Amino acid sequence: MGMANTAKAEQDTTAAARLDVPVVVLSHRAPVQFRREQGKRLIRRGAGGLVTALVGLAGQLDDAVWVCAATTDEDSAAAAEHDGGAVPLVMTAEPTPADGNEADDAPVLGVRLVDVDPEQHEDFYQVVSNPLLWFIQHGLYGLATSPNIGRTERDAYEQGYVPVNEAFADAVAEEVEARGGRALVMLHDYHFYLVADRVRARCPEVVLSHFIHIPWPGPDAWLVLPADIREQILRGLLGNDVVAFHTERFARNFLLCCQELLGLPIDLDTKTVRVGGRVVAARTYPISIDVDALVEMATSDEVEELAAELQRELLPDGQQLLLRVDRTDPSKNIVRGFLAFELLLEQHPELVGTLRFLAFLQPSRLDVPEYSDYLGRIGAIVARVNARHARAGVAPIDLRLQEHYPTAVAAYTLCDAVMVNSLADGMNLVAKEAVTVSRHHAVLCLSESTGAHAELGAFAVTLNPFDIQQQADALYAALTMPARERADRQAAAANVVRGNDVAKWLDAQIADLRLLTGLWSEEPEGPRLAPAARD
Amino acid sequence: MGMANTAKAEQDTTAAARLDVPVVVLSHRAPVQFRREQGKRLIRRGAGGLVTALVGLAGQLDDAVWVCAATTDEDSAAAAEHDGGAVPLVMTAEPTPADGNEADDAPVLGVRLVDVDPEQHEDFYQVVSNPLLWFIQHGLYGLATSPNIGRTERDAYEQGYVPVNEAFADAVAEEVEARGGRALVMLHDYHFYLVADRVRARCPEVVLSHFIHIPWPGPDAWLVLPADIREQILRGLLGNDVVAFHTERFARNFLLCCQELLGLPIDLDTKTVRVGGRVVAARTYPISIDVDALVEMATSDEVEELAAELQRELLPDGQQLLLRVDRTDPSKNIVRGFLAFELLLEQHPELVGTLRFLAFLQPSRLDVPEYSDYLGRIGAIVARVNARHARAGVAPIDLRLQEHYPTAVAAYTLCDAVMVNSLADGMNLVAKEAVTVSRHHAVLCLSESTGAHAELGAFAVTLNPFDIQQQADALYAALTMPARERADRQAAAANVVRGNDVAKWLDAQIADLRLLTGLWSEEPEGPRLAPAARD
């Protein structure tokens, strides 16, 4: 599917450039952050492939606005200066306010920072989005004992998730209305499941898509939510023309939910569902990375120096390096990764002293008890393995609980194998980054339960995330793989990533959505997508 | 679907009677148990609807044999006396050896008790079947931390589950071969997923069905198993002509697993999957109870006396009675049931002193840590609720950790509401039993995640198993429901159960399978089931 999308994207490389309609993007995270330091306003551009891709898109458009949450006081101040409307910015590396005198091809983007009541936001973000939706969609609950859904969760939904979604839906609808009611709206992720149908109710001619970046499990998993809430979530999403996912499995699961939980007629061949006289399509666009930016960073002086330092520190005598880079999220399956590493050392004692495991882990959501417990489990297993298998004062695991992207990239260039053993993962970009900039032909050890496995599994050593013996065996196979095979696999995987970078991910979506904007010249009534349309 | 099956069963009430082919049944539990007491051999008939139904079938057949596990020394001795072959028994209430001089219509059944190596059986039963398969199929694992699949589990599968399945497959195949290779084989449950394809390999003309009594979750859940094991399980089951479940959801999930995990072409309309030139059908037959036997027991002197005793003990001043009857299995969701009851008393203090909760719980699998932990949680929450809400020395919850079926039936006749809030449950027969013999128009409070909900949900108060506030509200609605509505609902539910009792459950299967035995007059090649055949 990744390949198919890539091919399609290549036919349509100019799809975004030819797009002559306004675009409204919604995501919780903003593409910029406003700060005040020493009395001066600073505007910092956000990191990540999504920002890069969408800012790239904005540069090609006459009219683009990004709706997102205000998170700093200075965000709120900037929004207030524009009466809550969009702040026009020139989105260069260091964004600046646009004053209308920019060159025609300047990448101007309106950024609408929505100020949400802090209590509502807390309920919306800290109770419903995380952990509830995140845990359900990643299958993290031990259902025998959790969650217990009670008034707290119900109130957080009704007094947090719902009004926050309404506020963002209003902001999106206002931007659409300001453009005459016709715009392409691209919603993002699990924070905003209730936005699409509200926007459609106000703006019936809009073209709406919603990209879901995390796994979409089958109907069984959604039974954890009260019936009315899960139905509202599905109905909300069915306000879209397209609901988009990273993999075919997630798209199919979404359709099965519509069938099983709402009783709607679905078609698994055309990947569509009929609702209220409309047809909604589930589509698959595997996200990727900004290859050029990553390669540039990997060859920067900073990263070269960091790599040399890691080499001296960790691999002074030509040791092999196993690497993982993750947030400390239970979905990343870090504890079982260390259990597998422990088995590997026990079953292959010749590796003790010749293999280092650099675990570069960014602490995450420590205010959620499951996450702080999980961090404790990580510390416990690392202590045990290091105590048992230290040689000459050197411990086999180097646990670094910090975030520093250049160091992670330096480690990518150096490592012999990278471990991605997630329980469930929408895509996993570490896998794509590592194979792209590896200089030692790193072997990708990749969980079958990641979105990335659909594209890269053929060139990876596949991991079963629950089977620690299998993971230990797979790591051994990776670390003893003949050099030629390592080189071939890494080159092939890197080729796949280069062939479908994040710009193409976006372009493939735009190309599909453009077909729908073509309907604007016709009657707005009737099905918007032909039920027989195929990918 | 229950209704549809019922209608079909009524057209075919004589399907079993008209069955003129040999039948071989396989289940882990035996229909009889041999014991030796004071030097004498005793033969005790097993309890439960399945035994009743299948013994009833045997009574109508010329030739029926039941293959099962020997569990006592005397079982093994009886099997040895017949060189490991079937022991012929007259299956009256107190079974006796058949000597060939019985009346033509005597219910003679051959019982083949298979002796399994105890270590293999331990691995097969205590590691793979329970907890591994049971936990996966009921969604009980907290996947962030368990299970860790390692050599123990791999060895238990390869050296336990596989050889035990082979031994039972051999026993079944021998019985089929002794009947000229043509027999109807009915396999049962999660212990024997690898039997069907082995039997088919030895006996290509056999007609094979496998009934799965527990939930069949979607593909996501099966990813917990190593890829080779889950594929072997599915391939094993695809040796059948029919794989049967309690609900449409389970049947659909099975087909989706064949598609997603094996890449086989499925048809959700005809509910079939194509494999190796054959067509395998997923079918739905909701199991039921032996209505006549239950009604007889409910009106027995023993149960009448037990009911009077419960009335005096628990309800001396006309209190209302809430009842649950379960094994202490985490899938039964007992702890959340007590949490909901606690909320109910807190939010409706007028119920304190006027409502008793009889929890009749049979301790289960206490050698499995998850189960003994769960029993501890039950004790803890009961202590808290009883300490907080006792009035005049009377605690609201009467927790009875024992099994005594007549007392449970007595409680069915007395109660005002029965709570079945399972997380996941293949069918749940408590729901069917309670509405059948209730004399106080008990309101059935029934989890949407039980198989029974597909048939009885329309007449029940539906429970969301994870939402304790919703459960508390639903219990309140049940306990304050107008008498007329209670009576109407209970009568309607009892009608459904009476209309589809366990004999009809079996007869509907036989009726479908008879069509396949008709193919014995034709070439054994080619598809056995037409892919266009519909339920």
Automatic annotation (TrEMBL), chains A, B:
GO MF, one example: alpha,alpha-trehalose-phosphate synthase (UDP-forming) activity
Highest taxon of the lineage: Bacteria
Gene Ontology CC terms, in alphabetical order: cytosol
SUPFAM superfamilies cross-referenced by the UniProt entry: UDP-Glycosyltransferase/glycogen phosphorylase
Transmembrane segments: none
Xref: InterPro entries: Glyco_trans_20 (IPR001830)
Alphabetized Gene3D superfamilies for the sequence: Glycogen Phosphorylase B
Annotated GO biological process: trehalose biosynthetic process
Pfam families recorded: Glyco_transf_20 (PF00982)
Family to which this protein belongs: Belongs to the glycosyltransferase 20 family.
Protein name as annotated: Trehalose 6-phosphate synthase
Source organism of the structure: Motilibacter peucedani
